[in-house]
Amino acid sequence: MKRLLICIVCILFGAVSCTKVEKQPVITIHSFFGEVTIQSSTGEKVPNIGDVLLQNDVIVTGKGAVCDLVYRDAGVIRINENTKVMVQSLLQGSADDVVLTIEKGKAFATLGKLKKGDAFALKSKTVIAAVRGTSFRMIADEKGAKVDVVTGK
To answer: What pLDDT digit, counting tens, does each position of 99-153 carry?
Structure first.
């Protein structure tokens, strides 16, 4: 009886330890309104709530439009009207390395404490803001960029 019980426990343990753990998407569309499109290698489309963004995807918002992205469970990035943002880097592994590039327009990011080793940056042609546990806004255009820290350091 003991052998049978040990055998069942070993089989159950083996089955549980062999199950594939799915990775949580890094950046997803949380909400949006107005004219918002995602440009990717497969073409241009209107986003759906829950869409997962991939490296080199570009989010474009029109006049009066807003798009909110969720960065794992650590933060929210709001892309304001008339803005173009590219997912430049989206490396996953034991630690995330996420870089969003604002080509033009305005974005607001609120990030909680990131996991050790994780990196998040919002950049433009002239400015890079790499933060953890901060709320900040970046405005960029052809001439340059400006970063305002709302909370944090």
So the answer is: 889 999 999 988 887 777 777 888 888 888 877 777 888 888 888 888 888 776 6
Tell me which long-range contacts 12-19 makes (C-beta under 8 A, separation of at least 24): none
* Whether residue 58 has pLDDT greater than 50: yes
Residues 6 or more apart whose CB falls under 8 angstroms from that of 136 comprise 108, 109, 122, 129, 147, 148, 149, 150, 152
**pLDDT attached to residue 51:** 94
**Residue showing tokens 């009886």:** 1
Which are the contacts of 88, defined by CB distance < 8 A and separation ≥ 6?
A: 55, 56, 99, 100, 101, 123
Burial of 132 (0-12, 13-18, 19+ CB in 10 A): middle
For 80, the token pair is: 């304001």
Q: What pLDDT was estimated at residue 19? A: 47
Helix (H) or strand (E) holding 29: strand 27-33
User: Which pTM was predicted?
Assistant: 0.77
Q: Note whether 84 and 65 are within 8 A (CB).
A: no
Q: Which helix (H) or strand (E) holds 11?
A: helix 2-17
